[in-house]
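re: ur question from earlier - yeah i can do the single chain one, its not a big deal. heres the input i used so u can compare w yours
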Amino acid sequence: MKEQKIHKTQRPKNAQAMVEFMLVIPILLLVLVGLIEFGRLFYAWLIVENSTRFGIRYASAGTYNVDYCASDTPCSGDNREAEITDARLPSIEDETRRLIVGLAYDESLAQTANQYLNVTVCAGPEPNGNTADAVGLYIVRPQMGSLTKYAECTSGTESAGNPGEMVIVAVDYNFTFIVLPIFGFNP
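and the output i got, formated as tokens:
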């Protein structure tokens, strides 16, 4: 008997590369988008950290913007100390906001809204009258919505402080993700 050789003809695998590419491209896109979103989030965090740092420097130096003085002669005369005290708080807030560059924000939004921004300046002894920490020898890390000294500093009770008092400058910012809501993720 004769042996017959069976030749299998191999079909070209042109579509195999296309299928593999289609299987891998969603994963690559998710990694790329994740890197971009994380980069934006890290940038926002750095901007907020630096702005608060500059606000604290401004507050600790005791400086103020003369445009916030009430009298015709900037912060001089009979009410000099009171005018300086009143001018320091908006001056510190302006210095803090000045460094928030590249972030879309609106201070008139609700606290839960995207792009919400709030600058809080708080100083002095504990609001409950506790004299154990009259000059701020310890710090309670500010947490939005917490029951700390920072949470008790609301508009109306904010203070730029006096010499020897601890000053807290805090910025609350609600970061807005761009791509995650498109995929149905709401962090």
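The chain is about 40% helix and 5% strand. not sure if urs matches, ping me
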